[in-house]
Amino acid sequence: MNVETCNLVPRYILQPTFSRHLLLPVLLLLLHAWWGCCHPQCLDYKPPFQPHQPLVFCKEYSKFGCCDVEKDEQISHRFYTIMENFDHSGYVTCGRYIRSILCQECSPYAAHLYDAEDANTPMRMLPGLCGDYCSDYWHQCRYTLGLLLEDSESPQQFANLTATIEEDRRKFCDFLELKDQQYCYPNVLTNTELNANLGLVREDPKGCLELCLQEVANGLRNPVAMIHADDGTHRFFVAEQLGYVWVYLANGSRIDRPFLNLTQAVLTSPWAGDERGFLCIALHPRFTTVRKAYVYYSVSVKKQERIRISEFTLSVHDDNQLDHSSERTIMEVVEPASNHNGGQLLFGHDGYLYIFIGDGGRAGDPFGKFGNSQNKSVLLGKVLRIDVDNNDDGAPYSIPSDNPFLGEKETRPEIYAYGVRNMWRCSIDRGDPATGAGRGRMFCGDVGQNKYEEVDLIVKGGNYGWRAKEGFSCYDRKLCQNSSLDDILPIFAYPHKLGKSVTGGYIYRGCQMPNLNGLYIFGDFMSGRLMSLKENTTTGEWQYTEICMGRGQTCRFPKLIDSHYKYIISFAEDEAGELYFLATGVPSATARTGVIYKIVDPSRRAAPGKCSIKPSPVKIKGKLVHFHPKEGKGNPKILVTFSFFLPQRPAISTTMPKTREGKLWIGEKLESAGEGNQVYKKPRGKGRGYKKGRDGRRLRAGSVRLVSTDGLLDRGRVEIFLRGEWGTVCDDLFSAKAGSVVCRQLGFTKALAVMKRAALGEADSSVRILLDDVECEGGERSLLACKRSRVGKHNCSHGEDVGVICG
Ligand SMILES: *[C@@H]1O[C@H](CO)[C@@H](O)[C@H](O)[C@H]1NC(C)=O
Ligand SMILES: *[C@@H]1O[C@H](CO)[C@@H](O)[C@H](O)[C@H]1NC(C)=O
Ligand SMILES: *[C@@H]1O[C@H](CO)[C@@H](O)[C@H](O)[C@H]1NC(C)=O
Ligand SMILES: *[C@@H]1O[C@H](CO)[C@@H](O)[C@H](O)[C@H]1NC(C)=O
Ligand SMILES: *[C@@H]1O[C@H](CO)[C@@H](O)[C@H](O)[C@H]1NC(C)=O
Ligand SMILES: *[C@@H]1O[C@H](CO)[C@@H](O)[C@H](O)[C@H]1NC(C)=O
Ligand SMILES: *[C@@H]1O[C@H](CO)[C@@H](O)[C@H](O)[C@H]1NC(C)=O
Ligand SMILES: [Ca+2]
């Protein structure tokens, strides 16, 4: 990414000659760019997460970051491999720099620090440091840079290039610094603005939650519903208004033969806004054993418009097709007008079929004395509940014995709730994945008349107020003031300046977006607005927050997009609980502009591996149509995005850049850091044999280190560096005085204990024994200055390796 975008206002803006009418757009553009800058993202281009288990090495990223335990282990291994090159003081001085630099791969801002936000440009090999930090690093440990770059494909080249910049702080830091002082390491950790809500859903300056989308299917004609079979296949079934239902496999491929083709029977038209048509499908909740589907659609019978709820049985020959000759009508309701046909069908957790029927149409529910919705002797304007189990002989359905109005005079026994106008999209809460809280709640959007749209929580026997009330306000004053109304108010209502036709959604209970758990996400068909409600469990109130598309860089993850078609027709949940919505650019039953979008939180994902699913196989007859994303560069006029401008999104490849590219880039940077491409050559030892200690000084003969399996710095088996290698000291006569020489060499004041006979560990046989028979006075500068046998000459084994505890 371009680091300049983080600098808010360039100087030319302040120049008076700057044309005034250009000022605002430029400011907005800059704000926009600033806003898109520096969001949490990992090097795999995905959002950060909380690892399954706490990290052992890069501990500070255990709560939220980009590493799981495996990655953490790799980094730790790399660290200790690098640290093998150091003696104790080198370890103390440079260890923390090396550790911090390596651990930035786990930072939630890793992509930013490594310049990896744009998948099309090469990334850095090392994270971007802040200037002060880089200077400190240069002063204390500049010669360790080569070790950090050592894993590269051409270490010789790096030897050349690092050698040139190591000598020059400016060049060195040009190479390592990220110029933006807010978002470099370590300032990024203390930036309050960045860290205030780290890991939560990102909000724009107005508090709008910034989410992204992934296109899942396209080319659909007014897709009205998407359901799953809950049978382990993770298939999804998508209904189009004109009467088709299509099967999509878990991988997004569509079966070319329709699951259901009711186009001939369905009553609809191509005109935009026709509410008639195929409106819903529900599969039996035990679909694996009861292979039945229920559909809800408009028909014309003897020139009379009706809605029909009917049952189909799965084909015995094909698991992906209904038996078209098996239709059995469950119920028909005459529609006095062509609008307000309701259209939701779903099974509750009680196993009963719920049917949501509109008030019959026209404005203000004009039929009868007080309309249909408050008239319990009609099915219009109601939520019905029926039992369709065991209906193979006799009546197509029965009435559940606990239906609320059973036995009431002039009341249809199917009624579960009433006073609804035209409920469009209802859902059942799966419940909190951990506690089960909320499970079974039924949410609906109820489309309003001309002032308010509402969201209702449907309970048994509830009166939802229409036509006495619209939202919280009175619509029919007389009915509204009648004390016997006893209605249930919506959990939320919004005025028509926000939208004119609510599309009910779902409570998110999936696995992949932990931030969204418990959030009710819904939308508006007319305004294209996405919205959310979250329950305050203390007060029971539902708090509204708008949802908007992530700005700037926020959605620049592979496959993600930040815009959608305006007409939000429906919401859906897949078998795993992930959330989708269905929208179109032209709301006509014949326009193929319908798209299914998956809702994605770019701020946090679940720990890798946590949400993996294994779809059970499906026998397929017929051909498959593979999915090709189309959206994201659509016509801006009919897309909804939330930005001051529509930024040009560069094409994003969905693969990581080849590591070679990254390395080339580093090479180029290094090269330009050298003077006029003149690369100064400095001989370099082979691989790991190249030894440098603190402040870049080569390890001196006689340097010592303590080796311990538990990583403690103050104790361990004594090793000494001689003739280019580390070897042990073995001696049964090793004294406390010799021990204190070792400890002082390492920067401690004295030896607390000397351990013989490998009490602090035994080196393996590949390590040479270098010293024996050491007798120190206690004042020597190093073990080599003590009385001792010749290097390499000894009469002991590793069983007598010595160790010390320093203090
Ligand atoms: C290193 O530098 C020397 C001379 O400066 C040059 O001849 C050699 O090709 C360089 N090696 C690499 C790998 O760039
Ligand atoms: C999706 O899965 C089906 C069945 O396993 C397979 O035949 C098809 O090729 C897959 N589609 C893609 C795009 O991989
Ligand atoms: C759907 O059915 C209609 C008539 O019943 C037929 O004309 C049409 O070809 C069918 N469509 C598909 C995709 O099978
Ligand atoms: C309720 O509906 C029934 C059936 O349509 C009708 O006969 C009756 O008059 C209606 N009641 C009122 C009060 O409008
Ligand atoms: C209030 O409503 C009830 C039942 O809906 C009705 O019987 C009664 O007449 C109404 N009262 C008034 C004052 O309108
Ligand atoms: C719930 O509402 C109470 C009272 O208004 C408020 O103090 C509390 O912070 C709210 N809780 C959340 C999680 O918003
Ligand atoms: C090793 O040799 C030294 C003399 O060089 C002698 O003092 C010591 O006892 C020997 N140790 C063993 C274990 O044989
Ligand atoms: Ca209401």
Automatic annotation (TrEMBL):
Keywords: Disulfide bond, Glycoprotein, Secreted, Signal. Belongs to the HHIP family. One of its GO terms (cellular component) is membrane. PROSITE patterns: SRCR_2. InterPro entries: 6-blade_b-propeller_TolB-like (IPR011042), Folate_rcpt-like (IPR018143), Glc/Sorbosone_DH (IPR012938), Quinoprot_gluc/sorb_DH_b-prop (IPR011041), SRCR (IPR001190), SRCR-like_dom_sf (IPR036772). Disulfide bonds join 776-786. It is found in: Secreted. The keyword Isomerase does not apply. Pfam families: Folate_rec, GSDH, SRCR. Residues 681-691 have a biased composition (Basic residues). Coiled coil: none annotated. Residues 676-695 are annotated as: Disordered. It comes from Amphiprion ocellaris. Residues 704-807 form the SRCR domain. Residues 1-40 form the signal peptide. This is SRCR domain-containing protein.
